[in-house]
Amino acid sequence: MTVIDTTPVVPVQTRSERPWSFDPEDFERPTGREVNWKLSDLRRLAPLLVDEETEAGERSLDYDTGDAEARGLLVESTGHDAAPRGEIFQPEDLASAIAWKRCANALHVRLPEGQAVEAPVVVRIAGRGADVHGNAHIVIEAMPGSQGTVVLSHEGSAAYAQNVEILVRPGARLEVVSVQDWEDDAVHAAAHQAVVEQGGFLRHIVASFGGGVVRVNPSVRLAGEHAEGELFGLSFADAGQHLESQVYLHHEGVSTKGDVLYKGALQGEGARSVWIGDVLIGSGATGTDSYEKNQNLVLTDGTRADSIPNLEIETGDIAGAGHASATGRFDDEQLFYLQSRGIEEEEARRLVVIGFLMEIVQKVGVPEVEERLAAAIEEELRRGASLAPASRAGA
C-alpha cells in the first residue's frame, strides 16, 4: 500500500529563517510560488539560474577600479577560502549560490584602519553583451576607525549575477552606492550582505535606472552595540522594465539604529517596481530605534508597483519602530499650487518628480555621483514627456 504524506507544506515566511547554502544543488529551481521569488520576473532571470561554466568565465565583464590599486585600497583575493570572503556571506537563493561557485576570485576593496579615504573608490563594471553570462563576488571592508565611500557603477549589457559582501569593522563609517544604469536588455541579480560591528555606521544606497530586469537585494546585520545602518533606494522604471529590491535589516546589538527609505517612479506600459522591506528586531536588541518606508510615484497608466513592508519585534524594550508604504499618482494640490504661480503643467509635473526623488539623491554626499543621478532623472523625464499622465494610482 502506498502511503501519501498529507502533511501541509508551510512555506518559509520569516525572513530570518530562510535556508542558505554555498552549493547550488541545495536549491530547487524557483517556480514563482516561493516568497522571495513570487514577484520576480523569472522568465528573464532564467539565464542566472543555470549552473554551468561560461565561455568567458570571470572575465565576462570589464572591471575598472581607477586608481584604487595605486592608492593601496585593493587586496588580492584568490580562491573561495581567501579571508575575509565568506566571513558573513551566505547565499540564500540559487542565483547567489551559482555566483559563489562560479567566481573563484573576489574583488576586495579595503579601507585602511584609522584612515579617512577622501576620494571615493569607484568600480566601473561594464557588460560585453546581453548574451554574455557573468558572475562576481565583491568584498568591501572598512577596517576599524576608517571612513570612506565605495561606488559600484554598472553599464552596458550582460546577464550578471553578483554577490557583494560588506564588512564594517568597529568604529568605521562606510558608504556603499550601487548604480544600475544598464542597457535595456541587461539582466542583473545582486545579493548585498553586510555586517556592522560595534559603533560602526553603514549607509547603503541603491539607484536603479537601466536594465530589463534589475534585482538588488541588500541584507544588513547591525551586530554590534550602537551600530547604525541607513538603507536608501531610488528607482525609475520605464516601459517593460522590472526594478526590484528586497531589503532586510536585522537589529542584533544593543541600542542600534536603522533607517530605511526607498522611493520609486514609474512610467510607460508594463513598467514594474517591487519593494519588500523586512526589519527584524532581535530579542537582544534592546534600545533599538528603527523605521522603514517605501513611496512610489505613478506617472502613467499601465504600471505596477508592489510594496510590502514587514516588521518583526522580539523584545518590548525598544526606543521605537515603525513602517509605512504609499503608492499614488501626482499630488493634485502640489500641481495646482505650481500652476497657480504661472508654471505650465508639464514643467510643474517635472518639478514634482524631481523634488520627490532628489531626497534620496541628496543623501549620497558625493557631488559627482549626485550630479550623475540627477542627470539620469532628467533623462528619464525627457523619455516620458510624451506619455499621458496617470489617471489613477498603480496597484
UniProtKB/TrEMBL annotation:
Signal peptide range: none
SUF system FeS cluster assembly SufBD core domain segment(s): 133-356
InterPro entries, alphabetized: Fe-S_cluster_assembly_SufBD, SUF_FeS_clus_asmbl_SufBD_core, SUF_FeS_clus_asmbl_SufBD_sf, SUF_FeS_clus_asmbl_SufD
SUPFAM superfamilies for this protein: Stabilizer of iron transporter SufD
Origin superkingdom: Bacteria
Pfam families for the chain: SUFBD_core
Membership in a protein family: Belongs to the iron-sulfur cluster assembly SufBD family.
UniProt cross-references to NCBIfam families, sorted A to Z: sufD
Record-given protein name: Fe-S cluster assembly protein SufD
Lineage: Bacteria, Bacillati, Actinomycetota, Actinomycetes, Micrococcales
